[in-house]
Amino acid sequence: QVRLVESGGGLVQSGGSLRLSCAASGSIFRINDMGWYRQAPGQDRGLVALITAGGKTNYADSVKDRFTISRDNAKNAVYLQMNSLKPEDSAVYYCKAEEVPATAPFRRFERWGQGTLVTVSS
User: What is the pLDDT of residue 103?
Assistant: First the structure.
C-alpha cells in the first residue's frame, strides 16, 4: 500500500510563498494522478491542483497563475509551489495519489496523506 507524507506547511504573510512536498513510500507498483486538495474550517475538501503521470496539469480557478504543481516520478513525489499567497488560501493541504497495485493492476485506490497546515496572515 502506498503511504503519503506531506511537508512544507507553515505560517506565512500575505503575498509570501511556500512549497509543499509529498513523498510516496511503501510497495509501489504504479501511481497515476497525483494532486493537492485543501480544506478550510467549516468547508468541504476541494481540489487545488492535479498532475497526471505524463505531466498534464489542472488547477482550481482560485489558484491559477499563483500555484504550480510538479512531480518527480523517479522519486514518487509531488510538489506544490504556492506564490502570492492570500489569507483565503489558509487551509489544511492534503496530497492524494491514485495507486495501481501490482497484485491487481486493473484496480485503482485513492491514497491520502495526513495533511499539512498552511496559514496565511493578513
Answer: 87
